[in-house]
Design goal:
alpha+beta, 3-stranded antiparallel beta sheet
Length: 56
């Protein structure tokens, strides 16, 4: 069992990175966990989209 963590500041970039990982490595995916974090930096909101893929 292995894990892959992918993070992006835009949800569509995360989607592309996940699809690239799946197409290139063709892993047997056990589970996928998705998270969104929101922070404030210098009065601007910043998003962080991440995905944890458990695969073998």
């Amino acid at each position: 069992m292995k894990i892959k963590i992918i993070e992006s500041t835009h949800e569509l970039d995360l989607q592309d990175a996940i699809n690239d990982f799946i197409e290139q490595d063709e892993p047997y995916i056990i589970s996928i966990h998705y998270a969104v974090a929101l922070t404030s930096y210098l009065s601007e909101l910043e998003y962080s989209f991440s995905c944890l893929i458990v695969y073998s």
